[in-house]
Specification:
This protein is mainly alpha-helical. It folds into 3 domains: about 60 residues, SRF-like (3-Layer(aba) Sandwich); about 35 residues; about 55 residues. Helix content is about 60%, strand content about 5%. Strands 1-2 form a two-stranded antiparallel ribbon. The radius of gyration is 56 Å and the shape is elongated. One of its GO terms (molecular function) is DNA-binding transcription factor activity. This is MADS-box transcription factor 50-like. Keywords: Coiled coil, DNA-binding, Nucleus, Transcription, Transcription regulation. Its main location: nucleus.
Length: about 210
């Protein structure tokens, strides 16, 4: 009877998870031992359980293998290999970008009407559609800019009209004040030179009524 394939996810049951860990751990340690014996390889294996228990295997010692790993990473050869790999990567990336730029330049020349002789009818139709779309976008952008400019000019005109109205209000001439003459005074008498004034001469102490 064929065994069912186990789904690769965390085992929720604690007891089942512990049993599976023990079996898989022993199998992993056995494989590490076989690899070291059969292939004369230096192997170091470190395993921590979910409870924090440490299990390890090493052909000599784990610390010695770790120190050897650190020394290997510091060797000039490893750094040189990393540099060579980086250079190769950037060379490949540069070539890819150069090819992309060349394709874009060729497409740009076609849009300008250059080098379109080898193009097929379908390619020319696509170029025409792209040009019409680009022209439509340019016209729409131009129209929007013109409308915005017109709106700005109208706003400036409204502001100028408001300022002119304020200035006209400030520059209005106030009416001259008129002189008010009390009633009963004849202005013609004041201006006449022929007005007679009666005078009386009184001689004596004050209070007497003798007059001459």
């Amino acid at each position: 009877m064929a065994r069912g394939k186990r789904e690769m996810r965390r085992i929720e049951n604690t007891a089942s998870r512990q049993v599976t860990f023990s079996k898989r751990r022993n199998g992993l340690l056995k494989k590490a031992f076989e690899l070291s014996v059969l292939c004369d390889a230096e192997v170091a294996l470190i395993v921590f359980s979910s409870r924090g228990h440490l299990y390890e295997f090493a052909t000599s010692s784990v610390q010695k293998t770790i120190d050897r790993y650190k020394m290997h990473m510091k060797e000039p050869g490893s750094t040189k290999r990393a540099a060579v790999e980086s250079i190769q990567h950037w060379k490949s990336e540069t070539a890819r970008l150069a090819n992309k730029i060349e394709v874009l330049e060729a497409h740009k020349r076609k849009l300008m009407g250059e080098g379109i002789e080898p193009c097929s009818t379908e390619e020319l139709r696509e170029l025409e559609a792209q040009l019409e779309k680009s022209l439509s976008n340019v016209r729409a952008t131009k129209q929007k800019m013109l409308l915005d400019h017109i709106s700005e000019l109208k706003e400036q005109e409204r502001m100028a009209l408001r300022e002119n109205a304020v200035l006209r209000e400030k520059c209005k001439v106030e009416p001259l004040l008129q002189l008010t003459i009390p009633e009963g005074i004849n202005t013609s008498d004041q201006a006449s030179p022929n007005v007679e004034v009666e005078t009386e001469l009184i001689i004596g102490r004050p209070g007497t009524s003798d007059s001459r």
